[in-house]
Amino acid sequence: RKSVVRVTTGSQALDELLGGGIETSAITEAFGEFRSGKTQLAHTLCVSTQDINCGYFLFQLPTSMRGGNGKVAYIDTEGTFRPDRIVPIAERFGMDPGAVLDNIIYARAYTYEHQYNLLLGLAAKMSEEPFRLLIIDSIIALFRVDFSGRGELAERQQRLGQMLSRITKIAEEFNVAVYMTNQVIADPGGGMFVTDPKKPAGGHVLAHAVTVRLMFRKGKGEQRVCKVFDAPNLPEAEAVFQITPGGIAD
Ligand code: ADP
Ligand code: MG
């Protein structure tokens, strides 16, 4: 394995839960209810991964191993990326917002095929320039739209599996940290769709592809709670973090 680095989430409690931050050469997934902070963490990672000396978050690893110091690729399927949000987050990390934004390659995907083609293009780019982070927010949304009919689930899962194996290959080949968000399942009940905040979408195909699976939920006010769901090397513990103007924090 290439030398794995960890990217700080901006919250020391969350980093500790993750064994130091989100890992390169691995896929970290966050699922959970609406407004639980999944996209805000994506924005924070866009900045923190570019920080070569985020010394003040250090508690475990030498400075040289913290922060990815590479480019960021952001695939947005829900239209929720806000470049304006990057500015105060960069300022909080003591970085130049313009320089940080210049290092983020952003693309909006409109169909699952478009999403797949964007990944192919990114893989080509990554062989030319150093990338440290790939964000996919969210992995599942377009599959749910494009395969919404009855009887389409098997094909959806097959296509999802193909996309995920491509993502795994990117993570490992380029030593990139992949952070993807996922939605929760909507169970039809009594003629209405009721979401279950504890059930990630994507079934076994997605469950098997991810390295670390995190469940987010809302706490009091701006507090959020993250629970490690399914990770072979991590205890099933929880961390409390906050969403602040400067991004994810303690
Ligand atoms: P989701 O899990 O649906 O992706 P988000 O990551 O978009 O959720 O989180 C949305 C929440 O983030 C909002 O409800 C708000 O509490 C918080 N938030 C968004 N922007 C800011 C900000 N500038 N300052 C503080 N909190 C913010
Ligand atoms: Mg979101």
From TrEMBL:
The keyword Oxidoreductase does not apply. Its main location: nucleus. It comes from the Eukaryota. Residues 3-184, 190-250 form the RecA family profile domain. It is found in: Nucleus. GO terms for cellular component: condensed nuclear chromosome. GO terms for molecular function: ATP binding; ATP-dependent DNA damage sensor activity; DNA strand exchange activity; double-stranded DNA binding; single-stranded DNA binding. The keyword DNA-binding applies. GO terms for biological process: DNA recombinase assembly; DNA strand invasion; homologous chromosome pairing at meiosis; mitotic recombination; reciprocal meiotic recombination. This is Meiotic recombination protein DMC1 homolog. The chain holds residues 102 to 351 of 354 of the full protein.
